[in-house]
Design a protein that fits this description.
four-stranded parallel beta sheet, 6 helices, 38% helix, two-stranded antiparallel sheet, 6 strands, Rossmann fold, disordered C terminus, alpha/beta, flat
Length: 144
Amino acid sequence: LGPDADELYALANRELPTSEVHIIRGHPPFFVEFLAPGVCKGTGLVELCRHLDIDVAELVAFGDGDNDKEYLQFAGLGVAMHNARDVVKDVADYVTPYTNDDDGVVRELDRLRGESRLTPDAEWTRQTLVAVSTVSPASPLSST
């Protein structure tokens, strides 16, 4: 079948000029992403917020993979899932005790609402514009 994702990641980092390509080890660990320099979920989040006139500091972002690191750092609150890789947990503001398979995103949103860290229902959707990339196929959020 060829090299696994770790081998491909190492090979790409050795052979490709970093000035021309940004390489991210994927999660789950069976893929590698190749992006233009300066392009990542974080810059996408900033651009979306600019377009919607939302302060990125108001956002809650959830992630578990290497490709989530930047946008967890850009968001006002970056939450790493319990099953996240250590490099993701290291940059997150908070690590939830739940995995994405445990409905961790929903549980954390409920916890934040209970702590009054999110605004009332009328403004809740706009404020939290949740950047979710940890939704499992069985999750009720996966169709959103």
